[in-house]
Amino acid sequence: MAGVEQIEVVVAHQERATLRVGDVFLKIDTDQTRTDIEVEAMALAPIPTPRVLWRKPPVLALAALPGRALGRLTEPSPASAAAWVAAGAAVRELHDAPLPPWPAPGRDEAASDLDGEGEWLVTNGVLPADVVTRNRRIAEPAFRPRPPVFAHGDLQVTHVFVDGDTVTGVIDWSEAGPGDALYDLATLTLGHPEHLNDVIAGYGTDVDLDAIRACWSARSLLAIRWLIEHGFDPAPEVALLKSQL
Fold it and tell me: Counting beta carbons within 10 angstroms of the beta carbon of residue 158, is it exposed (0 to 12), middle (13 to 18) or buried (19 or more)?
């Protein structure tokens, strides 16, 4: 890394920080269990992932992926429709892989958290009560039992990298495990509903669109307080919840 002129702070909060130094990403995590999962998940995933350069807890060094992120929540995606189709195909390949050996996160706990988060949003004036109540109803199908798949768990649009119409890799695997296929698809398209049909075309199977919308509402309701408390702008999630009316 000799000759590097600057260090880029990719993300930083009380639990985790990611720095870019030249062509190397340095991930610092207070919880080494998350790092253990990330390293193992990348080794098991059948799709491209960053190469692990070295690990010296609490730091994990990863090689940068070629290309650029599929998009960002607050901006129109610069990627082609074909790139979004390719992303859907990559997600399907992941979901068709054998389940990883560690346990799935509890969904009942997430469902109960939704009520508390909704109350906090109203009490603190973040959202009107009617918006929260409506989205709480929309979110209900997100918690219906579905067969688990090998899920990424945090498949944000910034975590999928493409070069032209080709997926070059997927990053940030610390939430990976047996999980809900539709939650992955919803996370990928949150903020970019115009590309949902492209993703489904690449995914190649019937998808419950109401369940996708339910996951949009559930993820947004659960995320907003955390984003605010960690210094992030929840505008995309707030806009989505309002649009569901």
Answer: middle
Residue 149 corresponds to which amino acid?
Answer: V
CA-based end-to-end distance of the chain: 50
**Domain span at 178:** 65-243
Angle between helix 181-189 and helix 81-95 axes, rounded to 10 deg? 160
- Does residue 217 have a pLDDT over 60? yes
Distance CA 90, CA 86 (A): 6
Candidates 168, 163, 159; CA nearest to 79 is: 163
Token output for 22: 């030249």
The beta-strand segments (E) located in the chain are 7-12, 16-21, 24-29, 52-56, 59-63, 68-69, 149-151, 160-163, 166-170, 177-179
Do residues 240 and 215 touch, judged by C-beta distance below 8 A?
no
- Report pTM: 0.91
> What pLDDT score was predicted for residue 110?
73
What whole-number distance in Å separates Cα of residue 55 and Cα of residue 65?
18
Bigger pLDDT: 5 or 167?
Answer: 167
The pLDDT score that the predictor gives to residue 104 is 74
Specify the number of domains making up the chain: 1
CATH number at 195 reads 3.90.1200.10
Q: Is residue 80 part of a domain?
A: yes
Token digits of residue 18: 């990611």
